Amino acid sequence: QVQFVESGGGSVQPGGPLTLSCVVSGTVFSVYAVGWYRQAPGKQRELIAAITIEGRTNYGRTSYAASVKGRSTIWRDNLKDTVYLHINSLKPEDTAVYYCNGGKDLPQLEARGASDYWGQGTQVTVSS
Q1: Residue 12: which of 111, 113, 94 has the closest Cα?
Q2: Which of the residues 30, 39, 68, 101 has an alpha carbon 20 to 30 A from that of 92?
Q3: Which secondary-structure segment (H or E) carries 11?
Q4: What are the residue ranges of helices labelled H in the chain?
Q5: Hey, is 119 helix, strand or coil?
């Protein structure tokens, strides 16, 4: 079984940056892609960024949702089994609980739903 633990959230002023961390533990060899998701109050959880796991390297193909593309970067540290998400120019609409999860490929990440295992998430609040 694989566990995902998110951290790094907090209160940020509009326009500020934030970096979130996702530590992956357990049977990590079964994970070939990791995604960052967010769920705003009253809205469905959405996949906003993903990275593939290319062996024991830090390399990975990345993809982003339109809502964060151009102001976000996802990357991984293989030695730490950690995936990071940095977001610039934060907006009030970025306020949400942010989660990470993994799977065998991008389609599986996109298919993750409420019935899947999710960690506690980390709250991000953007307000002045």
Answers
A1: 94
A2: 101
A3: strand 10-12
A4: 106-111
A5: coil
